[in-house]
Amino acid sequence: METKTTKTFYLIPYYVWIALFVIAPIALIAYYSFFDLHGNFTLENYLNFFSSVYLKLTLSSFWYAFLITFFTLVIAYPTAYLLTKTKHKQLWLLLIIIPSWINLLLKTYAFIGIFGLYGPVNAFLNVFGIGEKQILFTDFSFVFVAVYIFIPFMILPIFNSLDKLNPSLIDASRDLGASSWTTFSKVILPLTINGVKAGIQAVFIPSLSLFMITRLIAGNKVITLGTAIEQQFLVTQNWGMGSTIAVFLIIFMVIIMIITGQRDKGATSNGNNK
Amino acid sequence: METTSKSAKFYLALVFIVLYTPIIYLIFYSFNSGGSMNSFESFTWEHYAAVFSDTRLIMILLNTVIVALLSALIATIIGVFGSIGIVFMRNKSLRRSILSLNNVLIVSPDVVIGASFLILFTAIGVKLGFASVLISHIAFSIPIVVLMVLPKLQEMNSTLIDAAADLGATKRDILTRVIIPFIKPGIFAGFFMALTYSLDDFAVTFFVTGNGFSTLSVEIYSMARTGITLTINALSGIVFIVTLLLVVGYYFVSQRGKNPVGMGVRK
Amino acid sequence: MKEITRAAIAIVVVCIILFGVNNYLNQSSGNAGNDTLTIYNWGEYIDPDLITQFEEESGYRVVYETFDSNEAMMTKIEQGGTSYDIAVPSEYAIEKMKENDLLLEIDHSKIPNMSNIDPYFLDLAFDPKNKYSIPYFWGTVGIVFNPALLDGQSFESWDALWDPSLEGEVLLVDGAREIIGMGLNSLGYSLNSTDEKELLEATAKLKELTPNVKAIIGDEVTQLMINEEASVAVTFSGQAADMMWENEGLDYAVPEEGSNLWFDNMVIPKTAANVEGAHEFINFMLDAEVAAQNADYVGYSTPNTAAVALMDEEVTSDERFYPPEESRENLEVYKNLGLEMLGKYNELFLEFKMSSN
Q1: C 287-316 residues inside an 8 A Cβ radius of B
Q2: In chain A, which residue's Cα lies nearest the Cα of B75?
Q3: Is residue C16 part of a domain?
Q4: Do C97 and C202 belong together in one domain?
């Protein structure tokens, strides 16, 4: 079958990529994780990880990643839904993406100004008599900016799933007397679940290793596994410990993939290409 | 069109306002004659003049755009074929492992990716510069493309492909006439998110660049210690406006002379 | 399918055009000389006019690359792949680079302008006889404060930071050596201490500071202090000078118990391809007029006595940034404590950070 070979031919770049840029680095990281500062073989890094500090970091990383993903989803889903209802929806969608092309550090500096004591947000609060609030360096500002960064990554896949949704399905559901909530939970959501899952993966996974804004926006009051790895690699120069944390991060990611993975029946029918 | 209710419009408007506020803020201060992003003194164009007189900065901007466009394009091509391969994989556990491998680069902190790519490039002997930066950007953009394309592929009804096959379509026809048109929104989403990844990346680029090649992000981050100049704000303002005009302009030009639904329908 | 192909072709065409423009710019800006000199420095840490001037005088084409931390820069130089001719690391990084054999010796006979440098800044412990490095800028770690937001506190002592009236007002620099060092200094210990007991004592004392800590941050501190978001910050003198330039209400003090004296020096990495040019550049930067112009632009303290003489009196007589020799006595330069100890410092610092949540 010569078509078979053409198909695998198309896949070659992808597999080369996996081998060179995924498996090779993982192997390197796994290798480093067994060495201490002096280049001696050790399992101590792994024991270290189970000390209270890193377990605490893991928990807090997961907690914040969960918060970020949750709020991103809550905001993105209705946005994506409403976007599909607008005229020129493709244009509006592009306009959602464009802000993400401006440098992140610059936008973060802008947020520092905006959330500052004398920034526009506090000026606004003052007008309403609420008075100045410390917004910067709080959990709120951290989650807010993180959601801001990730929102396009959630909107896009959800928009794509919603966009192709047949409106007659919704009409049918309505005609059959289903409430809006029933229509949503029984008709719309199941049909868009793949988009939602993709969005959750595209937000939750990188949230675990967020680092820059933990310092700029949260003033190091939020510390994630990503921050810890960055410190180990750059400041402490303990590549062994940094690699060990990275190994755990990858393990956590795989667990998440298995949980959010393909348990739905849809996948089996797709898997069969006869 | 369906009646977009007032509250719906209000909600969308709010989302857009929040998304654009930091950018408006940056552009506002690009006209500040005071040297920094606080206390607006008086209006000036001087930072814009500074952009145009700084050829090094303009070259860095061009490099950034070239790397972003090319890497997003190539990553999209590789990622689309990769995800088609994944979806049609029969072995479930193999498919799951490939998907997990796919996401490793998304979960890894940039520093780790950058350092390991640097080790890889020096080991293979790739000269650090444009090529190494481009390859790295392609590499870390592929997973997001796959993530964006997969849901569309999963939604695709396999009966569609069976029907085409029954009608005598070759595998190639099925790919170019059935699959790709169907997943097109996913492809565009993947491309745009790859652009975002590339334009935002600092740490990976920093490690794998060399021999005078630099991107805007690297430049901006390394300015942080002594303070980011408003020239950068002005540059970002220009880039933002130009992008906006291009996107809106392209959209309306492509709408004209085509059916009104535009991107969604294959011609 | 058609649309996708068209989009792909459009992207390729745009890239080719941009590439062409880039090449054109490159040629029109690149000077005649084929020999290049690659400089690796912090962003905005040199007056760009001086680079142009050096290109004209020497005939070399300068490639200027930037980094944002000593550690990242060292990793790059260690891995190779690029031939940096000049780099500007901080003193503790120089010690490490020496240890890892990443530096070339400097030929002092090619640097006659070295006589311009204040002897006080030469022959220091991190680089005896300046075999590998030549001072570029220097400074201290201290406290920036905003008297208008405070009621008359002064910061002659580190202990002032612990004052309960400063609740939620103090910004700290995100550096283990700086902050643990501050804890050590405040107890009267050396900031290079490796004594377990002293370190634990310092950490315990720092933990008492947590109610006062607003945030532990990096370079953003400049913007925050200028905007009067906080009244007190522990930071480097260079950044303090930047802040005070923008907000004249700010003041800077170096506590009397002692503090850190830091240097950024020019070095020639082992990977250098143009060693001759590197020497020429170092000598050029030490020229009195050049160094004065550079110090004016960057705003940090220059170790160049001849340059100081040319600069504005108002700047150079400011004892906060050009402290007289007798008041420098309690200042210490960081010693390289080894990776193990550095790990210890960072572990304690992480503990402190997590307690501030």
Answers
A1: 298-299
A2: A14
A3: no
A4: no
Contacts with C, A 56-115, CB within 8 Å = 56, 109, 112-113
Contact A233 B111 (CB under 8 A): yes
Q: How far apart are CA C107 and CA C105, in angstroms?
A: 6
B260 close contact with A: CB closer than 8 A:
no
The closest alpha carbon to A99, from B192, B118, C289, belongs to B192
Q: What is the pLDDT of residues A174-183, one digit of tens each?
A: 788 888 888 8
Range of the structural domain that residue C68 is part of: 41-137+265-316
Domain count, chain A: 1
C237 domain residue, yes or no: yes
| Residue C117 shares a structural domain with residue C193 | no
**Predicted confidence (pLDDT) per residue in B229-247, tens digit:** 889 999 999 999 999 998 8
C219-246 residue pLDDT tens: 888 888 988 889 999 999 988 998 898 8
- Identify whether A243 is part of a domain: no
Q: Write out the residue range of the structural domain in which residue B176 sits.
A: 58-228
Distances (CA, A) of C308 to B6, C114, C119: 66, 14, 14
Taking the CA of residue A181 and the nearest CA in chain C, the distance in Å comes to: 38
The whole-angstrom separation of Cα A236 and Cα A227 is 12
Instruction: Kindly state whether residues C333 and C208 are assigned to the same domain.
Output: yes
CATH assignment at residue C193? 3.40.190.10
Interface check B254 vs A, CB under 8 A: no
Q: Do A156 and B192 touch (CB under 8 A)?
A: yes
Q: Measured between CA atoms, how close is C93 to chain A, in angstroms?
A: 11
Distance CA C174, CA C233 (A): 11
Tell me the shortest Cα–Cα distance from B223 to chain C, in angstroms: 4
pLDDT in tens, A18-47: 999 999 999 999 999 999 888 889 999 999
Sign of the Cα torsion C223, C227, C228, C229 reads negative
B224/C63 Cβ within 8 A: no
CB of A37 less than 8 A from some CB of C: yes
pLDDT of residue A145: 96
Cα distance between residue B67 and residue B61, in whole Å: 10
ipTM for the predicted complex: 0.86
Instruction: Quickly state the pLDDT bin for A270 (edges 50, 70, 90).
Output: very low
CATH of the domain at A181: 1.10.3720.10
How far does B101 lie from chain A, in Å, by closest CA? 7
Distance spanning both ends of chain C, measured CA to CA: 53
Q: Is residue B78 part of a domain?
A: yes
The region of weakest confidence among A145-159, C14-28, C143-157, C182-196 is: C14-28
Nearest CA in chain A to B185: A160
pLDDT score recorded for residue C30: 54
